[in-house]
Amino acid sequence: MANLSGHLDEHLRQIEKGLNIKIKNRGNRFQLKGSEDSTEIGRQVLKDLFVMTKKATIDPERVHMSLQEHSRPEGKPEEKDEIIKTRRKGIRARGTNQMAYVRSIRAEDLTFGIGPAGTGKTYLAVAASVEALETDQVRRIVLVRPAVEAGERLGFLPGDMSQKVDPYLRPMYDALYEMIGFEQVSRLIERNIIEIAPLAFMRVRTLNECFIILDEAQNTTA
């Protein structure tokens, strides 16, 4: 139960805040108070997390994903789901926040994605860029990231500019390889249809008909 509840019941408090309910627990018994719909979602989330405890350690990110999954409105027609279609696979947005995120990417010129690690911000953005490229909505994909180390010291990196920034762009590369394939990604990079650029080199550039993804944007400020 400690794995399910979290340190000082942090997972229960996270569920309470997300659903606006109250949870009391004694041993392996839980009492939920709130609206009927919210308490039912809370029960489903707790059951889902309890099953996970048998094979994994529960953390706030898993709690967040379970809340998103079970908070999705039921009974809506399937065509209202947000599905990103690429030649290799279709990617379905999970939960109301991911669906709103995908809708915003498709409808707006500028979209900010804010959330914990592992909630699909980069993955869905890359999927949307591939869909836009394959349907001729854009002519190029530009991958941008601040070259900020995450605690490790990479030291001097050999190679040209794209090779130097490659280690920082691995999450986007992984998504591209899954959706397009390794060889096709390499060809598109050679033809400059997919461009890798450190943020420091983006100043005064004019980019038309491009899908630009700025990853880890919180590191753009000093």
From TrEMBL:
Gene3D superfamilies: P-loop containing nucleotide triphosphate hydrolases. Pfam families: PhoH. InterPro entries: P-loop_NTPase, PhoH, PhoH2-like. Its main location: cytoplasm. It is found in: Cytoplasm. Residues 91-221 form the PhoH-like protein domain. The keyword Nucleotide-binding applies. One of its GO terms (molecular function) is ATP binding. Keywords: ATP-binding, Cytoplasm, Nucleotide-binding. One of its GO terms (cellular component) is cytosol. Belongs to the PhoH family. This is PhoH-like protein.
